[in-house]
Automatic annotation (TrEMBL):
It is found in: Cell membrane; Membrane. The keyword Repressor does not apply. This is ATP synthase subunit delta. PANTHER family: ATP SYNTHASE DELTA CHAIN. It comes from the Bacteria. Belongs to the ATPase delta chain family. It is a peripheral membrane protein. Keywords: ATP synthesis, Cell membrane, CF(1), Hydrogen ion transport, Ion transport, Membrane, Transport. Pfam families: OSCP. SUPFAM superfamilies: N-terminal domain of the delta subunit of the F1F0-ATP synthase (SSF47928). It comes from Bacteroides stercorirosoris. NCBIfam families: ATP_synt_delta (TIGR01145), PRK13429.1-3 (NF009964). GO terms for molecular function: proton-transporting ATP synthase activity, rotational mechanism. InterPro entries: ATP_synth_OSCP/delta_N_sf, ATPase_OSCP/dsu.
Amino acid sequence: MDIGIVSMRYAKALIEYAKGTGAEDRVYGELRMLERSFRKHPGLRDALDNPILKIKEKLALICTAAVGDGEVSREFSRFITLVLRNRREYYLQYIALTYLDLYRKLKHIGVGKLITAVPVSREVWERIRDSASTLLHARMELQTEVDPSIEGGFVFDINDFRLDASIATQLKRVKQQFIDKNRRIV
């Protein structure tokens, strides 16, 4: 079965169930952390694909990845148990991503990522987030990343739009223009 179809069905079912119990915000936080755990720890997927691990062990692993030492919501626990019993753990990361997208659409939340060569202050971060929020007429989730390879300036991704004002990109453009100009002369 197609990954997109399976993940959409499960994510829609979970969001409807969580909305019905009023726990959609908490489940969102748990799935957000679980998705981060999948990205940071590739071995998590390998562990879930391991047929030797029992459902209880996989459930404990997923719960730890979602909340650490804290207590997971009843809705999250029941949903993960369903996924494991149906042997759909392979799709869990995709289900989490789909749920996050559905939740953000439901709650009018935009997602942005700011990449800079040096860390930005909290004040700058808040100004950028607030400006983007005003432009989108939505609440913003803004992530920051430090990447010295951009040499200066910034790269700002917001939903499906990218503004690249990095020094590295500007230098590449100048270099390309210089190369193009020299080709025309020869």
